[in-house]
Amino acid sequence: MAAEIHSRPQSSRPVLLSKVEGHQDVVSAALLIPKEDGVITASEDRTIRVWLKRDSGQYWPSIYHTMSSPCSAMAYHHDSRRIFVGQDNGAIMEFHISEDFNKMNFVKTYPAHQNRVSAITFCLTSEWVISTGHDKCISWMCTRSGSMLGRHYFTSWASCLQYDYETQHAFVGDCSGQITLLKLEQNTCSVITTLKGHEGSITSLWWDPVQRLLFSGASDHSIIMWDIGGRKGRTLLLQGHHDKVQAICYIQLTRQLVSCSADGGIAVWNMDISREEAPQWLESDSCQKCEQPFFWNIKQMWDTKTLGLRQHHCRKCGQAVCGKCSTKRSSYPIMGFEFQVRVCDSCFESIKDEDRTSLATFHEGKHNISHMSMDISRGLMVTCGSDRIVKIWDMTPVVGCSLATGFSSR
After folding, report:
1. Residue 8, pLDDT score
2. Cα–Cα distance measured from residue 372 to residue 261, given in angstroms and rounded to the nearest whole number
3. Which of 205, 236, 287, 325 could be disulfide-bonded to 225 (CB atoms 3.0-4.6 Å)?
4. Taking the model in full, what pTM does it have?
5. Which helix or strand (DSSP H or E) is residue 301 part of?
6. Which helix (H) or strand (E) holds 300?
């Protein structure tokens, strides 16, 4: 049956289904157990907990396991019920969860890093556990033998990781704002390219292997979509958050991007339209509108006996302009600018009212969000953060409904 996407009323918002409380410190990661009313959490309070929903509607821990070091990252493979927990001390521990989710058995410890583990992924076909850490490296280890296969070092803390299971390419974001694309081999790796576009550290990545799109969120409050498989170098900028973007998830079927920020903002971006790429900022020694010199252009200032002006840039055309030629502000959602940005006066005149129609919806999570995970098949989302609270959301009112995934129509 063909997938069907229903229209979403603008007033729709996420529905808070449950709060899970009880952690003594920051909750580093939380994920929904597929096909179960359950959540797995990892926390700085050194605990891994499996919470199952009881008949009362409350979530109670069916597994409560204390680790030797604060938990910093987690990966769970549902078909094999294997869980990998990264710690502050650089180790990754593997456990196996019982079928009834009431018991967890220790399997192995992997000496993956010399410092805090920031992200983990597990590949069943190659039996690799791949991770990044604050020791500035990506490592991949064999889950059969527990031995290290390879490491690659960066110049900054490696903060987040995505992996293409089919091609064995890894995307690593770091604290310098750079994303490195690597091809992993059995005992070696090669750097394919580096992506530079953010002005702050990379905080989250999402890879869609179907459309071959990479999304990155950063501490500069912005999201960039990198078209890896299509037109070379094409990037789309999305600006609508007012704090660092902590987590992102792209829903390929409905062409929507869900993002969460540290101030509790939850955004749902419509990516099913033809968006415009933001222009590169042009450099000039004088305003490209009125030709007045900028303050470093000593020669023109001397020749014309005028005082130099400060340089700005129009976000729509990219031209270098002075303040007098860019007095207006406008949103321009088709280019990703959901709130008002500087535009030159001529571009302001060219923007119609309908061009200012928002292409995203914004919602309030009402807690600091440091991590988010979605169960796309059920339209559920879990958020957690420094307030030690885990929230479970019904996202179907805002992320569309699809017969293919079983979303219910609202």
Report:
1. 40
2. 10
3. 236
4. 0.87
5. helix 298-304
6. helix 298-304
- β-partners of residue 251 are 256
- Give yes or no for residue 393 having a pLDDT over 70: yes
Q: Bridge-partner residues for 190, per DSSP? A: 183
Residue 304, H or E segment? helix 298-304
Please tell me the predicted confidence (pLDDT) of residue 230: 66
Please, what are the domains in the chain? 15-277+359-398 (2.130.10.10), 298-355 (3.30.40.10)
The 10 Å CB-count burial string (b at 16+, else e) for 347-370 is bbeebeeeeeeebbbbbebebbbb
Helical (H) or strand (E) element with 349: helix 345-350
Helix (H, G, I), strand (E, B) or coil at 402: coil
Mean pLDDT, residues 130-140: 97
Q: pLDDT (tens digit, 9 = 90+) per residue, 184-209? A: 998 899 999 999 999 999 999 999 99
User: Nearest-CA neighbor of 15 among 378, 361, 376, 391?
Assistant: 391
Under 8 Å CB-to-CB from 253, ≥6 apart: which residues?
Answer: 3, 5, 376, 402, 404, 405
In this structure, the chain runs to a length of: 410
Give the helix/strand (H/E) hosting 299.
Answer: helix 298-304
Q: Kindly list the distances between the CA atom of residue 253 and the CA atoms of 36, 90, 242, 272, in Å, as whole numbers in the listed order.
A: 22, 36, 28, 10
∠ CA(175), CA(180), CA(185), 5° rounding?
130
Decide if 289 contacts 346 (C-beta within 8 A): yes
Let me know: does 113 contact 90? Beta carbons within 8 Å.
yes
